[in-house]
Design goal:
- It is built from 18 helices and 9 strands.
- By secondary structure, the protein is an alpha+beta fold.
- The protein has a domain at 17-167: Beta Polymerase, domain 2.
- A 9-stranded mixed sheet has the order 1-2-9-8-3-4-7-6-5.
- Helix 16 (303-315) crosses helix 17 (322-336).
- It is globular.
- It is an enzyme of class 2 (transferase).
């Protein structure tokens, strides 16, 4: 193990990070997504620092294949965009860069600063960025060029010991970003790490904070839960810590074992097939709550629309794209042995749009911004 040194306020040399070599961490460049590797090398060639960061590093240390390879760098968004023709700057409070490839998007973020208050989303150094991470195992930085792993906060040991440790005080972190409540139980489920007693108490205490999270963010978190291969356990955690009623209240009020068994089947299929389509995930979640269409509904050709409305009500207030819900309805009718097609887009324009165009839905209060992946 190597040591990275810096200087303190008095100008004295102090240790600031451990640097683990390939003999210790076991991560090779061959384990890194080839496009992510190209991005890092181009940034490095341009004179910037760049690292694979967050969940990808954690998963690699656990001998798992990451779903995403996020990158952190000291290059600013406009500097990144100049280097990649396929890059798009997104975000308002904190700007990120999405680099689009044929079948995926790689997210590149600039190191975050520590300015307090509403203007906290400023750029900073890697040392600042570490302190903005949620959990220690998400604060590890891997450089595929040197094949070194940088650890400023003891996250490497936490991964090896199976520890979940928050880097932000528990009475602050879930208020700062309520979606971290969901991510906490997702981390526990996907890693197999045990939740410490203090975190369990905090999850239940601050579960109501989810009521002010943006619906769009909760929708995407639900889809990530369904896609991760551990949805059954995550749902059980969400029920145990009073969180599910703020995500999908209809399901929370009537969470049956039949539905949970459906999630077990979904998890198995995702692990065996290395993923399934989003509409199949929605179908697996809602199928046990849907009422079988009557003969009169089928004869009058209103069955599709009624089941569509019913499925939307089951997952309300979440708002996945209507086309995904429609395809999930088709899967349900296929299970029933009924041939049905998605209604024509032009003849059912109002139905497809849901009436007049509305502003994005948000929960009460100002939606919280994510500060980590």
């Amino acid at each position: 193990m190597l040591i990275r040194y810096g200087t303190n306020g008095k100008g004295r040399r102090v240790k600031i990070a451990n640097i683990y070599t390939i003999e210790e961490h076991g991560i090779t460049t061959g384990m890194i997504d080839s496009d992510a590797l190209k991005i890092i090398k181009r940034l490095r060639h341009a004179g910037y620092n760049a690292y694979v960061v967050g969940g990808a590093v954690r998963d690699l240390l656990l001998n798992k294949t990451p779903k995403d390879f996020d990158i952190a760098t000291d290059a600013h968004p406009r500097q990144i965009k100049k280097l990649f023709y396929n890059a798009k700057i997104i975000g308002k409070r904190f700007r990120l860069v999405h680099i689009q490839f044929q079948n995926k998007i790689i997210e590149v973020s600039t190191f975050r600063g520590l300015t307090p208050g509403d203007e906290q989303n400023t750029f900073g150094t890697i040392e600042d960025d570490v302190k903005r991470r949620d959990f220690s195992f998400n604060a590890l930085y891997y450089s595929p060029v040197e094949e070194q792993l940088l650890d400023y906060i003891g996250g490497y040991d936490d991964v090896k010991q199976g520890r979940i440790r928050s880097l932000i005080p528990l009475d602050v972190t879930f208020k700062e970003d309520p979606v971290r409540l969901i991510r906490t139980v997702k981390y526990a489920s996907t890693t197999g790490f045990q939740l410490p007693g203090k975190i369990k108490k905090a999850l239940k205490k601050y579960s109501s904070e989810l009521d002010r999270a943006a619906v769009s963010r909760l929708t995407e978190e639900l889809m990530k839960i369904l896609a991760c291969g551990s949805s059954n356990q995550i749902f059980r955690y969400c029920m145990e810590y009073d969180m599910l009623k703020y995500i999908v209240p209809v399901i929370a009020s009537n969470a049956t074992e039949e539905m949970m068994d459906s999630l077990v089947t979904l998890d198995s299929e995702i692990l065996e097939r290395h993923g399934v389509k989003r509409e199949y995930m929605l179908y697996a979640l809602t199928r046990t709550y849907l009422n079988k269409p009557t003969e009169s509904m089928i004869k009058t050709k209103t069955a599709f629309r009624e089941v569509f409305k019913e499925m939307k009500a089951i997952i309300a207030p979440l708002t996945p794209p209507n086309i995904e819900v429609e395809k999930a309805v088709v899967l349900y009718f296929k299970e029933l042995g009924i041939s049905v097609r998605i209604p024509n887009q032009h003849s059912n324009a109002k139905y497809r749009r849901g009436g007049k165009r509305r502003r994005p839905q948000h929960r009460k209060g100002r939606p919280a911004e994510s500060t980590t992946k």
